[in-house]
Amino acid sequence: MVETGGSIFIALPLVVMLLSLLPVCTLFVRKVAVSAILNVLRILCLFVFLQYLTLYFIQPGSPALYTSCKLVEFTLVFYLFKLMIPSGQGKDIMNMFLVSFLSVVITIYSLKGIMAFPGIMTVVQAAILTLLAFVVLFQVISNRHIVLINEPAFWVAGGLLCYFGMVVFMEAIAGYQSGLSQQIQQQKSIIIMFADIMRMIIFVVAVSVAGKQPIDNRQ
Fold this sequence. Notes:
Strand content: under 5%
Number of helices: 7
Keywords: Membrane, Transmembrane, Transmembrane helix
Order of helices and strands: HHHHHHH
Largest sheet: none
Structural class: mainly alpha
Radius of gyration: 18 Å
Helix content: over 70%
Number of domains: 1
Transmembrane segments: 6-29, 36-58, 64-81, 93-111, 117-141, 153-177, 189-210
């Protein structure tokens, strides 16, 4: 659940919101060549903007809304990773896994309530995405025909690993400690928001290295 209070919980969400729009603006200004990965990345950044706007300013402290947003974010990021997997069989496996996972989660929420196992659900979702980030990075690094610093998928996967890896780390620490004080919970949220800031900065690098659209000189 999102904890609010203090100027830092106004400043940091604002920073993340502004940074989440930067990759979108960069794609537009640079006239980057259209690709499925960058299109989904654009949607993800816009969703992150709306997510922070809703959870921290419009409807703060809503457990149901927070859980729903995180599930939508998981779906978007999972689909983004699927686009970065070159194997057709791998994509099929990921499609089946996503459908099965969402079915199980929605069933649990229907039977137990939207706040069923919140800590476990957060860790499981973040752990799955962290594992996929490692897989994608391994595949990109193993490809000797590309220059890593010029490959958007490398930066996108790196940004997602930075964020969801930190989520797993922080939630795992909190999960082993009962009765955490509000101050510690707030500190955990601050660290995760800093990780989100890093994610958006790396996304900006990803769209900055993407190839531009070819110029059409025809009149």
